[in-house]
Amino acid sequence: MLKTLLKFFNRSTIAAPVRNRNMMGFADKQAFLDQRLKAEETRAKENRPHEVLYFHKVDDPYSYLTASYAGEISKRFNVEVTPILVGDDVSETVHEPSMYDVHCLNDARRIGPYYDVHYHKDTYPDNKLVQQANSVLIKSDKKEFIPNALEIAKVIWGDKNEMSNELSNNELSDAEIQKALKEGNMVRDKVGYYFGSAFHYEGENYWGLDRLNHLEDRLVDLKLNKENFNDYIISPTLTAPAEITSEKKLNLHFFPSLNSPYTYVSINRTRDFAAKYNLNLITRPVLPMLMREMYIPLYKAKYIISDAAREGRRYEQEIDKIYSPLGQPARRAYSLFPVIDSLGKGFEYIALLMDASFNQGINIGEIDKLKAIAEKLNINWDELEPHLDTEEWKKVLSDNLKDMYSGNCWGVPSYKLTNEDGSNPFYVWGQDRIWLLKEEAYMRLS
Prior knowledge:
Layout: H1 2-11, H2 16-27, H3 29-45, E1 51-56, H4 62-69, H5 72-76, E2 80-85, H6 97-111, H7 127-139, H8 142-156, H9 165-168, H10 174-190, E3 198-201, E4 204-207, H11 212-221, E5 250-255, H12 261-276, E6 280-283, H13 298-314, H14 328-335, H15 337-342, H16 346-358, H17 367-376, H18 381-384, H19 392-406, E7 414-419, E8 426-429, H20 434-445
Parallel strand pairs: 1-2, 5-6
Antiparallel strand pairs: 1-3, 3-4, 5-7, 7-8
C-alpha cells in the first residue's frame, strides 16, 4: 500500500513542487560542494583516516573490472581502501530483473577489452563457486582482499579455470556466509547505495570504473595524491577519432525521456556525435520510468540526480533550475512530438524541452512555454495546435519502448546504431556508453 502511494506521489502532477525542490537540492552544485566540505570537517573532528570503501560482489560481472584497478587507489593516494563484501543488490532498485543480469554481463563483456580486462565466460557462476568465492573473501584480511578478489574474478569471468589450492580450501557454512553478506549490505545501505562494484568516500558514491574519475578528482582536490600525475588510474583505450568522413551511412536511434537528468546531460554529446559522424539521427522518445508504473526509492533518486549533475558538470552541460515534467506536462509536450518530428525537428524539440526542464526550471505543460519553443524551432503554432492534447503520441512512444526493450534496454537514454538499411542493430543503455557507440560506428565506417 505504501509503495502504491509513493508511486502515485512520485509521478503525480500535484507533487511537482516537492519533487522539484528535492531534485534541485540533489543537483545543486553549491550544496554538493558544501556537503563535501562538511564531510571533511566531520572526518577531521572525529579523527578518522581518509578511507575509501569498496563494495565487492563476487557474482557481479562489473566486479572483474573494479577488482582489476581498486588496488591502484591506495598506491596513488594517501587513503585506506577498505573492501566490503556484499550480497544481492537491493531488489526495489532493480526494475527489470529478467533483463538486468543479461544487460550487466553483456555490457561488462563489451567494455572490458577497452580496460584490458578480458571476459572468457559468458554465463553467471553456479552457486557452489559463488559460495566458495565468498568464503575466501570473508576470511581474507584487508591487505589480501583485493588481490584475492581479482584472482577469483579471473576464475569466474576470465581465463582461469580454478582457484589456487591455498584459496580453494576455505569454505564456510551457508549461515556464516549469509551473516557476513548481511553485514556488508548494511554498510552499503547505510551510505545510500544499492549495488556492488562501487566505491564510497565521505558521503559520496561512485559506481564502477565509469565513476572512478570523479573519486580521483575529489582525492586530488584534497591533495591526497602521493605524486603529481596527469592521467587517471584507468580510462578506456579508444581508437575512434573525433570526426570521420565516409561514403557509408549509419542510423543512430536515440531513446530519451522528458524526466531523465541523464538524458539532459547526454543531449549535446549525442548531437555532436551524430553530426561529426554524419549519422541519420532518429529521435525515439519513451515515457519516463515513473510514468511506466516503476518505483524509484528516494535514495536511488538522490544518487541518480546527483550523479547526473556530477556528469553534467564534467561535460559542461550543468543541471540548474529543475521543473519535473511528470504527468500532465510530459503528456502535453509529447502530444506535439509526432507532428514536430515529421517536420524534421524532433531532436531539437526534445533538446529544448530538456533545457526548459533541467536548466531553466520551466513548466513545459504551459501552452505559452510550448509556443515559445515552437517559435525557436521556426514552426507556426497554428500548425501545431490541432495536435495539442491528442493521443497520437501514445502509440508512437509505445512502439519506441517495444523497440528499446527488444534491445534489452529499459532505461534512458538508450541508443540503437544500425546500418542505413536498418540491419545489424547495436543497442546500448546510458550516456556512459556514447564512447562505445562511437567505437562501433568507427568500426563500421572505416
